[in-house]
């Protein structure tokens, strides 16, 4: 699936000297390659998270459009865009995102359970948890996990539906060097299978896995 | 206070308030139906203790009798369509008697207030020595009660009225005269001294002929017949109705106030709870949940919590209402008769449905407000 952002921008209210708003993301074009890992780096507050939230349909752009296979995702209804996000996107959000009332396995299977499709996905969940080294925690409630274990659980959840677009915000935060390698190898593998993998990170250890690297600064994106 | 506790209290309050108002209205209706006469005449000495309304409403017992010369004067007053006398005797709290109750003796030949009621409630067949008892009086398996050393067969038991009559015993003049003779020879020697046990009356109930003004008729009796007090039954009911009206208005205002506060609090509580769960909703959105899916899930959760809360509240109300009804009746000094099963079921369903609807609506409102926000912003807030 081809993801493309055209003149996409997002402004927020902020009182200033000359104007009452500022652009977190300037009107920019962005077109990650299919079957590749794209890494976006940049200082905190440069607009990286805002950009990827717009790319996956979680934040409506103030300007421009986001297209998936030529279709503007913000012209879809909330229900359609949610289904698209469930089927085609694998999102690893910033911070800890485990639902405390669910076990690790249930958290991983959440996108599947939500639309009533289980079956073979249970085996897939088991395999992902094994690959990420947390299979023994499958029946543990997520509030009992460490930061690194929660991060790996979020990675497994993002990959459960074999998405064609993977958007990861700091996927290796809270992870040690060995686990970082484990996670990055998994994402790289998905890219080899044809998925577009977009990673926002401050972690220098991620760069070697990138096919292209962008830097974001004051809402502007530059390819390195 | 949790959402669950709040919903229990709302359900409890709704059920209690409505049951209380309906019970009081039922009680008044029963009281009105039992009284039957236009005017009640009692000895003026009875004022303050065992007056007819006290006997009827609260079961306050007393032995008091109209002097014979006053009874003769009453008979001579023009305008009486029919009249009947009743003889009251309070059983003793001693080994001679099964229970301390008010015994009401009526004359079957002239009675127009008790017999119609008895015949609608139980069999009116009463032989010499038979008694009919109020609904709250328990009697032994042999079917008789003892008064002043003699046993009397229980010929029937009346339906509940919510008044003092539920604790009264009814019998004919012949039987009560026999009881009074036994009493005057024993524990009631002092209170029955000088009373003509065959002819005496504790009260006279009068039905006035058409065309006569009832209040003026009562005034005439008060002016011309010494040592008695004539009271139009309408004024007795009127004072009860006024009391009931005041209590009903008071309960309604309190209930409305509590509901208003409850609505505000429950909306605020749900809004706060939803706010605390913003991140959870953002995660669901990330996984592909639509706004409608989240609102549905939150509504289902609220319905479950609200139903559990409302059912618990209703259960507590049902447990409390029966043992407390007597003390409520005494506290309000008003006739109190709980609604029948069908009305109780309707009230119960209402006491569950209303809080459930309120809980679900409050949850839906809060969830709708949260899902209107962009998920990307919710994630940023909690990152």
Strand order of the largest sheet of chain B: 5-6-4-7-3-2-8-1-9
Average pLDDT score of chain B: 78
**How far apart are the termini of chain B?**
29 Å
How many helical stretches of chain B?
Answer: 11
Assembly type of the shown chains?
heterodimer
Can you count the helices of chain A?
A: 6
Order of helices and strands of chain B: HEHHEEHEEEEHEHEHHHHH
Number of strands of chain B: 9
End-to-end gap of chain A: 24 Å
Strand order of the largest sheet of chain A: 6-7-8-3-9-10
Could you state the order of secondary-structure elements of chain A as H and E? EEEHEEHEHHHEHEEE
Radius of gyration of chain B: 30 Å
Strand content of chain A: 25-35%
* Averaged pLDDT of chain A: 92
Question: Could you please describe the fold and organization of this structure?
Answer:
The complex is a heterodimer of chains A (224) and B (383). Chain A is α/β, with parallel strands linked by helices and 224 residues long. In chain A, 31% of the residues lie in helices and 26% in strands. Chain A has six helices and ten strands, in the order E-E-E-H-E-E-H-E-H-H-H-E-H-E-E-E. Chain A has helices spanning 48-55, 78-88, 104-113, 121-131, 147-159, 177-192; strands at residues 3-13, 21-30, 37-42, 63-68, 71-72, 89-92, 165-169, 196-200, 212-217, 220-223. In chain A, the strands form two sheets. Chain A has a six-stranded mixed beta sheet, sandwiched between helices. In chain A, strands 2-1-4-5 form a four-stranded antiparallel beta sheet. In chain A, helix 3 crosses helix 4 (121-131) and helix 3 (104-113) packs parallel to helix 5. Chain B is α+β, with helices and mostly antiparallel strands. In chain B, 56% of the residues lie in helices and 14% in strands. Chain B contains eleven helices and nine strands. A nine-stranded mixed beta sheet of chain B has the order 5-6-4-7-3-2-8-1-9, with helices on both faces. Chain B is elongated, with a radius of gyration of 30 Å. The model of chain B has no long low-confidence stretch (mean pLDDT 78). The interface between A and B is medium-sized, with 27 and 22 residues.
């Amino acid at each position: 699936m081809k993801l493309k952002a055209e003149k996409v921008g997002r402004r927020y209210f902020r009182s200033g000297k000359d104007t009452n708003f500022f652009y977190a993301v300037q009107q920019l074009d962005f077109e990650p390659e299919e079957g590749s890992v794209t890494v976006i780096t940049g200082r905190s507050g440069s607009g990286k998270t805002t950009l990827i939230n717009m790319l996956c349909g979680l934040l409506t752009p103030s300007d421009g459009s986001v297209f998936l296979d030529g279709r503007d995702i913000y012209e879809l209804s909330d229900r359609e865009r949610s289904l698209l996000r469930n089927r085609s996107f694998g999102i690893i959000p910033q911070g800890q995102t485990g639902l405390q009332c669910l076990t690790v396995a249930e958290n991983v299977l959440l996108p599947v359970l939500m639309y009533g499709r289980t079956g073979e996905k249970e085996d897939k969940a088991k395999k992902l948890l094994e690959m990420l080294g947390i299979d023994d925690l499958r029946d543990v409630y997520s509030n009992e996990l460490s930061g690194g274990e929660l991060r790996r659980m979020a990675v497994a959840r993002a990959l459960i539906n074999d998405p064609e677009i993977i958007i990861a915000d700091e996927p290796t935060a809270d992870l040690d060097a060995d686990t970082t390698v484990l996670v990055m190898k998994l994402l790289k593998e998905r890219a080899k299978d044809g998925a577009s993998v977009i990673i926002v990170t401050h972690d220098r250890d991620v760069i070697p896995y990138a096919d292209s690297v962008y830097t974001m600064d004051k809402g502007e994106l530059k390819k390195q | 206070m949790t959402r669950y506790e709040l919903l229990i209290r709302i359900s409890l309050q709704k059920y209690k308030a409505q049951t209380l108002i309906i019970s009081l209205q039922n009680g008044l209706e029963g009281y009105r139906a039992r009284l039957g006469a236009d005017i009640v005449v009692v000895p003026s000495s009875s004022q303050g203790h065992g007056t007819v309304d006290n006997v009827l409403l609260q079961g306050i017992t007393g032995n008091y009798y109209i002097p014979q010369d006053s009874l003769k004067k009453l008979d001579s007053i023009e305008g009486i369509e029919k009249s009947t006398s009743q003889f009251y005797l309070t059983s003793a709290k001693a080994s001679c008697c099964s229970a301390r109750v008010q015994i009401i003796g009526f004359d079957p030949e002239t009675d127009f207030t008790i017999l119609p009621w008895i015949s609608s409630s139980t069999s009116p067949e009463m032989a010499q020595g038979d008694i009919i008892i109020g609904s709250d009086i328990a009697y032994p398996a042999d079917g008789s009660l003892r008064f002043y050393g003699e046993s009397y067969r229980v010929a029937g038991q009346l339906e509940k009225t919510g008044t003092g009559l539920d604790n009264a015993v009814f019998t004919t003049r012949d039987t009560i005269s026999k009881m009074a003779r036994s009493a005057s020879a024993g524990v009631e020697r002092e209170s029955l001294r000088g009373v003509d046990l065959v002819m005496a009356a504790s009260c006279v109930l009068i039905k006035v002929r058409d065309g006569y003004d009832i209040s003026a008729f009562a005034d005439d009796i008060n002016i011309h017949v010494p040592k008695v007090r004539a009271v139009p039954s309408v004024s007795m009911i009127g004072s009860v109705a006024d009391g009931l009206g005041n209590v009903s208005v008071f309960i309604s205002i309190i209930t409305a106030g509590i509901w208003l506060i409850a609505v505000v609090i429950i909306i605020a509580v749900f809004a706060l709870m939803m706010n605390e769960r913003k991140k959870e909703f953002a995660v669901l959105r990330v996984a592909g949940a639509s706004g409608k899916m989240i609102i549905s899930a939150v509504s289902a959760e609220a319905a479950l919590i609200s139903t559990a809360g409302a059912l618990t509240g209703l259960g507590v109300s049902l447990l409390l209402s029966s043992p407390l009804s007597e003390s409520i009746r005494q506290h309000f000094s008003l006739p109190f008769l709980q609604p029948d099963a069908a009305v109780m079921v309707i009230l119960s369903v209402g006491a569950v449905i209303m809080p459930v609807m309120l809980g679900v609506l409050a949850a839906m409102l809060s969830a709708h407000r949260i899902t209107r926000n962009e998920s990307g912003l919710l994630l940023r807030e909690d990152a």
